[in-house]
Give the backbone structure.
Amino acid sequence: MEIIKTIAALQNRLQNQPETIGLVPTMGALHNGHLSLIKTALAQTGLVVCSIFVNPTQFTDASDLEKYPRPVEADIEKLAQAGCAVLFMPDVPEIYPQKEHWHLDIGEIEHRLEGKFRPGHYQGVMQVVYKLFMAVKPDFAYFGQKDFQQVKVIEQMVKLKNLPVKTVMCPIVRDADGLAMSSRNVHLSPEERKHALILSWALHQLKKSYVKEASEELRKEAIELINAEPNVQLEYLEIVNAADLDTDISNPQIGIIALVAAKVGQTRLIDNVILA
Ligand code: PAF
């Protein structure tokens, strides 16, 4: 696997590349969820580029940025074993040589759910993903369903900017006990990890009994389940239209999804399940 640190060297490597390029953007601390993205990219494209860049502009909390796990050597090993051809690992000045203003108006979808709790987060995500798209010029880009709202935000950016890339959403990968894999899970103590299971359990129960007519009742039941776990601080659990994340689900064009966010100790977790 080639490790490339500058945009110029990356573009040099990728120019005149005859095969389709699949990009897997990550912030490192790789787990099996990321590796499933690599696997899908390998199956669908000729050359897989993974990026590892802990993007400062998407963090709304400085201490979260500071303590974000960065196990670089282990990540490199995992990617090489998974069959990734190129790892792009720039430093912050390479991506942000100067302070720059970024704003892309993608409408309400930015401000719902995560947007309410992490204002500005998706502007940072779009900013870095746009820069990665410009540097790599991928044919396909792979994102995990766990960050469902992020996928929708990026789709919207691709549409508005008319970018020649197809985004692919890959299913959530869970540990055997149901916990959605996340780079942040390493911050959970063994006790907290047990408490965190209420999130996937509540979503699982919701999906099992889901009928659209009883949405609100079932949502309340799921919230009660989570609130009964005193070590978990629920931020939101919403059932929304999967197209625009609006709580109006009367005309769901592409489906209905339940999304949850909560704090377990100091660790903020998100999860979701497609209901219909
Ligand atoms: O999902 C992530 O890891 C990040 O938000 C992404 C897409 C790599 C942008 O920094």
